[in-house]
């Protein structure tokens, strides 16, 4: 029996897309690790530029105070250069205040790596789980899961017990071992079929987690919010989408002008 001939189309867009990958903390090696992780998947005509928040941004974001200070440092430095970019990825695995601040201030699409991970996990599986760093981040991630409306699709979070910077400073074998065990618990003990990496600093540890949870065998997926966040932004830009300005994200610049405020 002959196979039916199905209609198809091959893409030909050469539209150049420029994305700013924003690391809200002040530690540049995390920014560089994020960029390295994109080398094999970034399509032609797309450029991702890394931004590390300047002083006095905290060196890591491990609580609410860190998040607020990092957002203030980042946005003041981003606004003067924002016109060079089509979209913005906030590379902090949290409901970071910088995400909505940029949505108010800019028109280009803005995505945080946490929400990018959650939306992707919801499409690929039935239950998501988060590999967190510390016990505190575990609590904050579980709060964010509720905030984003994914509580009904989540098995929760498991913590490695590491600090954010310890992902780089501790021996690699130790870090990978803790990551692997945490991912295993989420899949085998809690029933997750999609694992999200709960820190931008984990992006180069995806392969180890995939090995443990059986990604090659089709058992579970491991999602890196940096990688999928970039791809989601590319799709939004190619389709001509912008942040809607008729509601919550109406221009903050216009609001300041109406108040007679000429500073940020």
Model description:
- The protein has 264 residues and is an alpha/beta fold.
- It has two domains: 17-112 and 227-259, Rossmann fold; 114-225, Rossmann fold (3-Layer(aba) Sandwich).
- The chain is built from ten helices and eight strands.
- The strands form two sheets. A four-stranded parallel sheet has the order 2-1-3-4, sandwiched between helices. A four-stranded parallel sheet has the order 6-5-7-8, with helices on both faces.
- Strand 7, helix 8 (206-213) and strand 8 (221-223) form a beta-alpha-beta unit.
- It starts with 16 loop residues before the first strand and ends in a 6-residue tail after the last helix.
- The model has no long low-confidence stretch (mean pLDDT 93).
- It comes from Scytalidium lignicola.
- GO terms for molecular function: amino-acid racemase activity.
- InterPro entries: Asp/Glu/hydantoin_racemase, Hydantoin_racemase-like, Iso_Racemase_Enz_sf.
- This is Hydantoin racemase.
Key phrases:
Rossmann fold, 264 residues, 8 strands, four-stranded parallel β-sheet, 42% helix, single chain, alpha/beta
Distance between the termini: 69 Å
Q: Indicate the CATH architecture of the largest domain.
A: 3-Layer(aba) Sandwich
Strand content: 5-15%
Question: What's the CATH C level of the largest domain?
Answer: Alpha Beta
Q: What class do helices, strands and sheet pairing give?
A: alpha/beta
Tell me the series of helices and strands, N- to C-terminal: EHEHEHEHEHEHHEHEHH
Could you give the count of β-strands? 8
Radius of gyration based on Cα positions: 19 Å
Which sequence of strands runs across the widest sheet?
2-1-3-4
């Amino acid at each position: 029996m002959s196979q039916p001939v199905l209609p198809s189309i091959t893409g030909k867009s050469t539209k150049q897309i420029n994305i700013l990958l924003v690391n809200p903390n002040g530690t540049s090696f995390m920014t560089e690790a994020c960029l390295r992780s994109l080398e094999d998947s970034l399509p032609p005509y797309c450029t991702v530029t890394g931004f590390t928040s300047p002083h006095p941004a905290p060196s890591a974001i491990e609580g609410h105070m860190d998040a607020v200070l990092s957002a203030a440092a980042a946005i003041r430095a981003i606004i003067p250069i924002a016109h060079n970019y089509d979209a913005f990825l906030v590379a902090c695995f949290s409901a970071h205040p910088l995400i909505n601040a940029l949505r108010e201030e800019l028109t280009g699409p803005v995505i945080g790596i946490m929400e990018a991970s959650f939306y992707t996990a919801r499409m690929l599986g039935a239950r998501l789980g988060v590999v967190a760093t510390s016990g505190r981040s575990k609590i904050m991630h579980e709060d964010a899961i509720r905030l984003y409306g994914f509580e009904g699709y989540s098995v929760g979070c498991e913590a490695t017990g590491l600090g954010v910077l310890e992902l780089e400073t501790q021996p690699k074998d130790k870090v990978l071992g803790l990551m692997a065990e945490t991912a295993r618990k989420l899949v085998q003990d809690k029933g997750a079929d999609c694992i999200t990496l709960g820190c931008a600093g984990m992006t180069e540890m995806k392969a180890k987690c995939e090995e443990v949870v059986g990604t090659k065998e089709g058992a579970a997926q491991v999602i890196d919010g940096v990688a999928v966040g970039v791809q989601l932004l590319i799709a939004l830009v190619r389709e001509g989408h912008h942040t809607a300005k008729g509601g919550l994200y109406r221009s903050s610049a216009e609001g300041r002008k109406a108040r007679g405020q000429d500073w940020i």
